[in-house]
Amino acid sequence: MTTRRDFVLGSLATGLASTAPSVFAQVTNWPEMPVKIIVPFTAGNAADVLTRLVAERLQARFGQTFVVENKVGAGGMIGMDTVRTAKPDGYTIASATIGTLSINQFLYKKMSHNPETDFVPATMHWENCNVFIVRPDHPAKTLQELIAWARAKPGGANIGTAGIGTSPYLAAALFKARTGIPATTVPFAGGAQSLAALIGGNIDFSIDNVASGLALIRAGKVRPLAVSDDYRWPTLPDVPTTAEAGVKDFVLTSWGALVFPKGTPDAIVNKLSEAVQAIAADPAMQKRFMDAGAKLVGTSPARTQAFAASERVKWKEAVEISGAKLD
Prior knowledge:
Layout: H1 4-9, H2 11-25, E1 35-39, H3 46-62, E2 66-70, H4 77-84, E3 92-97, H5 98-107, E4 119-134, H6 143-152, E5 157-161, H7 167-179, E6 183-187, H8 191-199, E7 205-209, H9 210-218, E8 223-227, E9 253-261, H10 266-280, H11 283-291, E10 295-296, H12 301-322
Parallel strand pairs: 1-2, 1-3, 5-6, 5-7
Antiparallel strand pairs: 3-9, 4-7, 4-8, 4-9, 4-10
């Protein structure tokens, strides 16, 4: 069976081969001037930090400046719109995410762009997963014990997540639906606030991405029960996957991709993809990303587009189950 890990990480070995003919057939001198990468979220956000790491290596590889600029607002849509309306010459790129490419169209009532048709994906460049977290003194030592505990608790459990529409928030909705536990989702401004509430005893458990919780896990301030991927997360090798923990069909991750405006020449798209795949093959860069709580990946344009499309099916269901809607 082909897993999500095979789909994403297999491209590290095969992606270059699959894109090489078009790259060599379409010679381009891009980039010949500074390239702008638009991050549609605040500086210091995980997507911003990881994008800057890639931009640093792209600059060294091409000998040209790659400037990261934050365009914040409307769940990432302002930044994405900046790229959509940019000249498709390869000098404006969006650092898109699971939210901007595969969730927002189901979450927002109105959108000024179409994530499926207004952008040309070049490559994924990072991924991470969600983790179920409890306080160290919680009686549940496994995910199944947590489910049983939540079912027995009068009034049900309180699940802390990042804000409405984020992947942890939607993961909580799916988790409640799949397990049937009585629970209330409590959205916070971000993962840091959710985990602070957990440590303070204001919620029963939290679902958040590994990057948010890793430092607290390592410090022993919280305890992980399972990760929502189809393989064990490299920095948490002793923590089972949700499937291993008895919850099937619960692979829910976060990821980022570099995309161009519609109409950008294939030669430029392929050249960026090839560069990121080469960067992803560097063990030193892999370590830098893991230290930041994510995995560095590189994929061909075709794989990136297909993966984003497959994710839309999953997250459409999650949004519908959650009932979340934003203006």
